[in-house]
Amino acid sequence: MEKYLSPTYYIDSDHPAVIEFSNKNIKSGEKQIQKAVRLYYAVRDCIRYNPYSMEPYKESMKASSVLSKKYGYCVAKAVLLAACARSQKIPARLGFADVKNHLTTKRLMKLMGTDVYVYHGYTELFLNSKWVKATPAFNLELCDNFNVKPLEFDGTTDSIFHPFDKSGNQHMEYVKDHGSFADLPWETIITESKKSYPLYFEDLERRSKDFSAEALRENQ
């Protein structure tokens, strides 16, 4: 388990800010599973989901950088949760899959040019002698704006995106599994991302600053 407990360049679980954030969101004397659940909700709701925030710079994907910005897309938030878990001696790794995303906005869809998102990221935590998937991507406010059920996590069962929204419409499906990793395979992810949606990287300044507000306008 050593490689799932050690800090890395991206999963910088030894960074003072990551340690401080983690300690602030747990209670003394709690069991690992209780700590993991608290850290999940802290990352889910304190860090805003923003799919416009992917940058082609490796330093932007460090857990401490994501924490400093207080926003990130699915992979960035998964990296932060992994770092928080490792800072509390909870083994953590990253999982990736291509997903067909039915939760988007017209502006984002035009920019991406597809509803298939490559290397969607989530965190896997080793709790009660087994690996459990946790997906902290969508914060509660964003879920409300999209009329999607927020994804809960109890530390015992896998938590991945619900296949349907509150109205029964199809939300997201996993189409290809890329497996689990002890560290972030950033070069692979950014290469595949640029190949899959080149328009997204053409002009970083044209991106929306508030994805949640954009979702609310389209779903009112």
Q: SSE order in H/E notation?
A: HHEHEHEHEEHEHH
What is the helix content? 25-40%
Strand order of the largest sheet: 5-4-3-6
Apparent shape: globular
Number of helices: 8
Poorly predicted runs: none
Structural class: alpha+beta
Total number of strands: 6
**Largest sheet geometry:** 4 strands, antiparallel
Which strand-content bin applies to the residues? Answer: 15-25%
How large, in whole angstroms, is the Cα Rg? 16 Å
Mean pLDDT: 92
Distance between the termini: 47 Å
How is this structure best described in words?
With 220 residues, the chain is of the alpha+beta class. 36% of the residues lie in helices and 19% in strands. The protein has eight helices and six strands. The strands form two sheets. The chain has a four-stranded antiparallel sheet with strand order 5-4-3-6. A two-stranded parallel ribbon has the order 1-2. Helix 3 (63-69) links the parallel strand 1 and strand 2. The chain is globular, with a radius of gyration of 16 Å.
